[in-house]
Amino acid sequence: MDRRNFLRSGCALMAGSMLLPERLLAKEEEKPNIVILLADDLGWNDVSYHGSEIRTPNIDRIVKEGVELERYYVCPVCSPTRATLLSGRHPLRYGMQDGVCTPLTTHGLPPKEITIAEMLGSVGYKNRACLGKWHLGLNSQKFDPISQGFTYFYGHYNGALDYFTHKRYGQLDWHRNREACVDGGYSTDLLGLEAVNFINKHSDDSPFLLYVAFNAPHGPMQAKREDLEEYGFDHDKGIIKHSSKNRGKREMQPEYGLKGRGNTVRQTYSAMVDSMDDQIGKILEAIDKNKISKNTIVLFQSDNGGIAHFGGSNKPLRGGKFTLWEGGVRVPAAIRWPKKLPSGVKQNAVTGAVDILPTVAEITGAKKPEAQLDGRSIWPVLKGEEKPDPERKLYLGDSSAVMQRWKINKGRLFDLSKDPYEKNNIADKRPDIVKKLNDFIEKVESKAGEKCSLGPEKKGEFVPPKDWNLGLLDK
């Protein structure tokens, strides 16, 4: 079923609901609000509930009041994780597994993919907001959030946005829907404020979907002075040197990322995480004040592991962003729903971002897209009704996959039950497990699809559209 027919069938379902008995209408009204909070490059050891020195009381609150997802897997870089989170399908299927969407590429999340926003729109979720970093296509308006099922967008299309100027490659990349928006302030604060405003506006018009994709703590390394001081900023010491790679003429921002640096990269990174956690606290407070916390699902996760030279830490896990080691693809995550889920539970089952769409489909009664999903509903696991499935296999990308006990990473096999830090390759000792996982990987990778490229091909020196108006690229 294509997107148009999927949405049309959803409208028919909503129209038909007008004829349902009162008892069923009451049940319809009980659909939960859904809030998805996504951090950018947050490492395993960058939350205080994992023992970090960085203070994250509000992220910790979600863990304490909900289900901690101890074995939650994503892709090793951000665009693929965002794609799989919204589609329930491996980005391999549409050519997005390996890299991010940059201004120099022409591909993105294909318009034909049914996103979680479109799916929920078919079952009564009238207000569906995307706030923050999109990063799923920069070469056509057909890739933007409004074209992908969201009814409201506030934020930026690019990655690595300047937190203070909101510019990328010399052009303002800050939008309200499709119009350029000049809002002064630190981007993390602006996203938190917008999320609170959305909740205040639509708390009586439930259910809603709110997807908040923070750009923190991704580079450039920029924090507010008051947050830096909370982590010991010394005015008499020098600031960290510019850590971004010199992109020459492509960057076109000689002062890019200079403002907001601390004495050390870890200090700056810590202040950025702290600021994000503050805004998460304000979002949770808005949910509480509007008396909708009981029936609001809140999911928190990172998009991939942290980067050590940009201040992130994945200890004691091995590796980090860009790698398929645990530190690159296993991230902090938790889900809270006071009405239906237990609190203070640590769930050790293998789960991942690919499972969110099918899980939400089961919870809301939405019809899943007919395209083959790679995730599965983890609702019974979250409720504690099912134990971890020892045979479940989750594809991680590039000849790598994980099970409850086993993990294979490009031919190297690890027994995570005994070796969670991936120190001992035992592929020669368990050829049966190697074959099982390689057969699974081969099956998944045989379904690899082509990239969806739209808009003009990039030739010569790149010049971004004014105010990052993607519609100009389609003309």
TrEMBL record:
The gene is atsA_28. GO terms for molecular function: arylsulfatase activity. Pfam families: Sulfatase (PF00884). This is Arylsulfatase. Belongs to the sulfatase family. InterPro entries: Alkaline_phosphatase_core_sf, Sulfatase, Sulfatase_N. Residues 32-365 form the Sulfatase N-terminal domain. It comes from Sedimentisphaera cyanobacteriorum. SUPFAM superfamilies: Alkaline phosphatase-like. The lineage of its organism: Bacteria, Pseudomonadati, Planctomycetota, Phycisphaerae, Sedimentisphaerales. Keywords: Hydrolase. Its EC number is 3.1.6.1.
